[in-house]
Amino acid sequence: MNLSIAMLSIKEDPYIGVNTKTYDASFPQRMRQMGGAYWSAEAKYWLLPYTFTNWNLLKHHFLEANFHFEAGFIPPAEGIVTVQPTPPPAVADEVITLSPHPSDGRYMRLYLPKCLTPTYLTTVKNIHGRRWNPDALAWELPLTQVSLRFIRQYLPDVVQWTFTPAADLPERLDAPRPQRKATQTVSARYEAAVVELEQVLMLKRYSWRTIKTYLAAFRQFIMFYNDLPPSQLTRSHIDAFILHQIKTKHISESHQNQILSAIKLFYTEVVDKEREVRNMIRPKRSQKLPHVLTENEIVRLLKAAQNIKHRCILMLIYSGGLRLGELVRLRLQDLEPEAGRMFVYGGKGKKDRCTLLSPKAWEVLQDYLSIYRPVEWVFEGQDGGAYSERSVQALFMKAKAGAGINPYATVHTLRHSFATHLLESGVDLRYIQDLLGHESSKTTEIYTHITRVGWGRVQSPFDRLDV
Fold first, then answer.
1. How is the beta sheet containing 335-336 ordered, strand by strand?
2. Would you call 430 helix, strand, or coil by DSSP?
3. Which of 291, 305, 309, 443 is the least crowded, having the fewest Cβ atoms under 10 Å away?
């Protein structure tokens, strides 16, 4: 270890200034073990009162260190005693220390004293990209402009720097894209039929998700009869395949409908055999009620999302009734806080709409925007592109587990909760239909079956029995 030793005067009191020329993670802790030592953010040195005892104590604590004396430093002689100076407003154990990472120049380390943990742990956990290092007992933070803005805004008076960050720090770290395993699609014998169906779907401008689902379902169907050309398959072949899927794979009603829709499109648009798929047997739709969170559960969920970016994501979904795909495609210009609204473009069914932008949510969102400074999308990923749907699902699952709420809830549950809570507060069903972007009012009416409005006036007949 290389130590730089200087002679300093603070408020006319002499001090020994100590700093490292090469970083060592143990240095701040070893300095704290010497009574009276504290970090001076102004001088950029650890300070020890200029006494012979402290000088010997310093040499004893750093026997292996190389001392480099700055100009003007004279080691104190025996018998030199200085008046004990007034302690600084924040001693070493009452500040958060930031130091360079010893091996990774892209990160820095944050040491949070135990006495400050109850007050500042939640704030530290809000720093984007932070990670806990159990071996060093320190938080590791990305050395980026985003981290600096967060620290200056939320930890301005309690942080001491043991180094000066470079002026040309990156906005955020470039995270490598996750290497996903390439899915190997088994081609059917008559794969040309799948290609023809794909062309029709693209000409009809179906969404990429629908195209992917329909092609997979149709490929399964023709591979079931791999020896027969798809154009020669009849209605009995279709029914037999669907029956096999229900019995062996226990497919849901919605999946059954997707398979039938893909097959029907092929027969009507590709091979012109509409008669084969006329009046196909469709499954009876189940009347399922959506899962809904109470307002108290919403509060617990948002509090469990400690990262400010994650909390803003959940706030916008709930406060505006957004779908998952609509949230990740939200652009900065889609927000109109002055009017209390935001625009959703290219929603389900390729419909645009306008929905609510809560003033309370906007207050929190402004803090997020001032720190992260996204360029195009409201929520950007590590590489600057749109935030991924999978990441939103992952952060929701983590917050849900931390809040201990309904285990069956999904991200879409926030949209259901938005509609139900509006209905319970007396908002007309027609307005809710517009905010959700439902084409039919019957879709919105499902929330009338779970609302608690009027329940206080309904009494179970059991309560009238004399038992």
1. 335-336, 341-344, 353-356
2. helix
3. 443
Amino acid at 389: E
CA distance 200 to 465: 65
Residue 246, both tokens:
């229900």
Q: Give strand ranges (E) for 80-126.
A: 96-100, 107-111
142: tokens are 């990305």
User: Is residue 71 helix, strand or coil?
Assistant: coil
Per the model's pLDDT, the better-predicted residue between 37 and 420 turns out to be 420
The answer to whether residue 24 scores a pLDDT higher than 70 is: no
Check: CB of residue 433 under 8 Å from CB of residue 351: no
Spatial distance between the Cα atoms of 394 and 407, rounded to a whole number of angstroms? 14
Q: Which helix (H) or strand (E) holds 319?
A: helix 308-320
Alpha-carbon span 90 to 38, nearest angstrom: 8
Active-site annotation, residues: 323, 348, 412, 415, 438, 447
pLDDT of 63-74, one tens digit each? Answer: 888 888 888 888
| Tokens, residue 95 | 């500040």
Q: What is the signed CA dihedral for 321, 322, 324, 327, rounded to 10 degrees? A: -140
pLDDT tens digit sequence for 285-320: 777 888 899 999 999 999 998 888 999 999 999 999
Q: Which of 45, 29, 239 is nearest to 16 (CA)?
A: 45
Residues in the chain: 467
Rounded CA-CA distance 95/342 in Å is 41
Q: How far apart are CA 447 and CA 416, in angstroms?
A: 8
3-state secondary structure 186-201: CCCCCHHHHHHHHHHH
The residue with tokens 């609302």 is: 451
* Nearest alpha carbon to residue 292 among 436, 400, 425, 450: 450
Distance between CA atoms of 222 and 214, rounded to whole angstroms?
12
CA angle, 370 then 376 then 381, to 5° = 80
461 SS3 class: helix
